[in-house]
Every structure is written in structure tokens, then in C-alpha cells.
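Sample intake sheet
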Amino acid sequence: MNALALLLNIAALVSAVLLVTTAVSAGSRRPSAGPFPGVHDLYEAAFLNGGPARVVDTALTALYADGRVLIGGPGIISVQRPQADDPVERAVLHELSAAPSGALHVIREAAMRHPAVQEIGDGLAQRGLLVPPAANRGVWRWGLVQGVSCLVAFPVSIVLTVLQYATHGASFDLPAPFVVKMLPAIVVGGISGLVVASVAARRITGAGRRAAQGLAPLHI
């Protein structure tokens, strides 16, 4: 039991150190947004606050507000004037022309994947306001597996502790509980794994949050 506990503690602690080091290194390689991050237009602000869906909703609102499209029940869009003022509106109108039913949810989902919308996210990532979808996927998966494994190790350690004492016999020289020996791995590995996974799951950076929450759009 002592050898097993020592091996598992070393494995968990080494994994935790490597995970944190990898996460910090990945964060340091991201582009710097500078001391005064800002957004260029309303679509960038929408992307930071709600992703591609919010960008498409913003364009749909603009098209509906001046009567270029009508939205009737149940969620059917019809074009009144096929006039677009920007690439995102053109993307929405393009998807609308390609959708025979005019269903709002179909057009919305298709427009979210349109290059004109995705390019907004790419631009934000290049300026350090957003993390590309695949950038932290490996760190997120590693942290999640490590954190969950360490948490699962707690009830398993309790079971092994019960077996440890059940097979020890009647001697008064009782060994330290196996679960106590595993606490460093459970606590350090579990907390570090789940914290890193939580941070890695966030796409918006600290600079992106500051830009989305308070700075006025900069039209350049």
C-alpha cells in the first residue's frame, strides 16, 4: 500500500506541475492586446459577448429594424429589400436565399458558420481578445481528466482503506489509512486539474472581457 500510494502521489503531482506549466506557457504565447484593448465595431462587441450567434442576431435585428426583412410566425423570415450594408448582413441574406423554408433557426445556424462571421472571431483572436477554439483543447482535456480522476480516487481510496484494515488482522500496530496517504494527490491533482480545465474552457481573454464590458467601439 505504501508503494502504491507513493507512486500515485508522484504521478499526480508531476501531472499537476506539467499541466500548470503547459497552461501558463500557452497563455504567454498569445498575442498581446495592449494596455487599452477595444473593439472596432458592434459586431466585434457582439462576438465577445455572445459568440457567432450574437453576431447573427445583431445583423438580423438591423435588417428587421428598417424593414429589409420581415419575421412572421412561426419564425419565418421573408426578404422585402435584398440590400446589405456589411458582410455579415450579406451572409444572412445569402443564407436566406439558399433556405427554401425561410426558417429563422435554419438561417441563423447557417449564418453563424459563414466565413464573414467566423472572420470576426479570427480577427479578435489575432488581437489577443479571444482564444482560438482549438488552442486550449488539449490543456482542457488534460485538466478535466486529471481533476476527475483525482476526485474519483477519493472514494476508491476509502474502499481500499477499509480493505486495508479488514486484512490487517487483530494487531494493534495499525498502519496509516490509505486514504490519508492519498490526500496530497487527491487535493493537489484534483484542484489544479479542474481549475486549469475551467480556465482553458474560456474563449474570451481578460483583455477581451475588458473590451466587451466598458470600452466604446473604435471605428478605424
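Comment: Strands lie at 69-72, 76-79. Residues 215-220 have pLDDT under 50 and may be disordered.
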